Amino acid sequence: MAIEEVEQANARFYKAFEECSTAAMDQVWLQADWVRCIHPGSEIVVGWKEVRNSWAEIFSSTKSIKLSISNLFIKVVGDMAWVECLENIATFFEHGFTSGQVQSTNIFLRTEDGWKMIHHHASLLPADVPDDWDEDILH
Amino acid sequence: MAIEEVEQANARFYKAFEECSTAAMDQVWLQADWVRCIHPGSEIVVGWKEVRNSWAEIFSSTKSIKLSISNLFIKVVGDMAWVECLENIATFFEHGFTSGQVQSTNIFLRTEDGWKMIHHHASLLPADVPDDWDEDILH
To answer: Which one, of B97, B75, B90, B94, lies nearest residue B2 by Cα?
Structure first.
């Protein structure tokens, strides 16, 4: 089933991400000069060479990543697939870490070598204010 | 040609946006319960009814919008199309305005009624620092 295949391709992307592996990204992405990637709050990166460099740069400044996805939605139309999901991500650096939720749009193309990522658009969600937030603590 | 048709569908979306017209959005979007829309910095909106409401809410708080698109990229695979573009947008309110650049991923589906938008993911780019920015003025 195409949906299961795309779900697996999407999972391989997040495994490569969590493992900080550009070698695994090589297997996930279509290596074409028109693929595109938008990291949170950043300008678009165009072409596989530049996209690969952008991941290598992220991985080089990262000690480790913990990542899970939720709210997964997949739509397959012929040889193109659109995936929508929420990334729950914590990034650990040499000193300290950041964590947050990232809304992600991923697009895959069916090729002779299986489903390949052709687009990743990620944008940071505003941090939640807890329901039991007490404004009094501000005063 | 499919690419020209998708370019026109994308242009109709931005015309509806600039005209603040939910009636025009009715013609642009596929009215399905699985379409999705991510406004800049916001949580995902799922389903046509909710997506329509989100546009109506934006339009109701807006006096007028000036909008142009650049860096347009279109990829059509069968009955699905992926559009990437940069929105250069100024939004005018009763008092004052905001302006900025928004990176946008749009997905369209070919239907019996033409190409319909099924997904819009927009995220704000950081404001540019001018090339001739003089750090001395900070001191």
So the answer is: B75
